[in-house]
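Researcher: Structure prediction, please.
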Amino acid sequence: MKPFSKNLSRRDFLRGISITAAGLALTPKTIAELLAGNSGRKLGIAMLGLGGYAANQLAPALRETKLCELTAVVTGHPEKGEKWAKDYNLKKENIYSYETFSRIADNKDVDIVYVVTPPALHPEFTIRAAKAGKHVISEKPMATSVADCNEMIAACKKAKVQLGIGYRMHYDLFRKELLRMAAAKQFGTPIKMNGTFSFVMNQKQWRIDKKLAGGGAMMDLGVYILQAAQQATNENPISVTAQELPKERPDFFNETEETIRFTLNFPSGATCEGTTSFNGNGNQFRAEGSKAWFEMTRGAFNYSGGVGQTSSGPLNYQWINQQAAQMDDFADCVLSGRNTPVPGEMGRTHIAIVMAIYEAARTGKQVKIKT
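Model: Predicted structure follows.
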């Protein structure tokens, strides 16, 4: 597989890094023109899985979007469906259970299904949504195996629908600057990177259930570091070494890793030192080349509130709703026929890297990465 950005056209890549403001960088006329092609109607999104991220981040963000809106939900809990219908003024017939989900094929109110279940369930519902003729956003991490990622991609291609991954950080304004610097080749070589994304998990949840999550901190948090490193280098890593640190709370983390460290090696000679943990604190990323550097000393992967600077000076950005920008951009892709800059192929690459990191940690050897 080619480096991730080369799966996209140059026009798509540059469009992907031009996201600004609370949604798309579109003029009202452009928004009107896009919606005119859909009879003036915003694209309808069905939220599948109504957990904390859907309830606290995605659904509120849909109140701010310009090109899409919440029109349906899919849940295993009828009482949740009733509450969402009331809170978001949804039609009763647009409340689905997992068993009745396939009926969504006949619902003209729904154009996109956003799969927000634990990762192990992403393949089933992505494939079912594609068969129903709906475009799909799968939350990250994409799945728990490369084979499942391949099935998701194949199903969407067969159905001729778009598949995007919920990479909200692609639309963050600090990340936009990292992408711009990389595209302009400002860093010079080699690029040395380091990133940390960790928090202390105090309550048991699906993120440390190996069957549902596929792994621990590396699956849930580590993918953010992988994406940032790829964006800084415009390359896929070719090998990795890794170490799982001894567990401080082995009874709590009895199925998955608690903390893992890794070193990614890239074709250009770039490296990335990463640490991710469910029992620590860290939220930083730095990329430094021979000519320039980029750094976020706080909030590198946050929903908001990051602090960053480059070798040219401080970065001062107003907060944007990353999720609103992400969903509006996907809707733009559906309406315009543009390829999403965060496609299933990108998600598959990240899962391949994660699997190589786990193998390296298990064996203590350097592992080649097959993406």
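Model: The first strand starts at residue 43 and ends at 48.
Researcher: Thanks, that helps.
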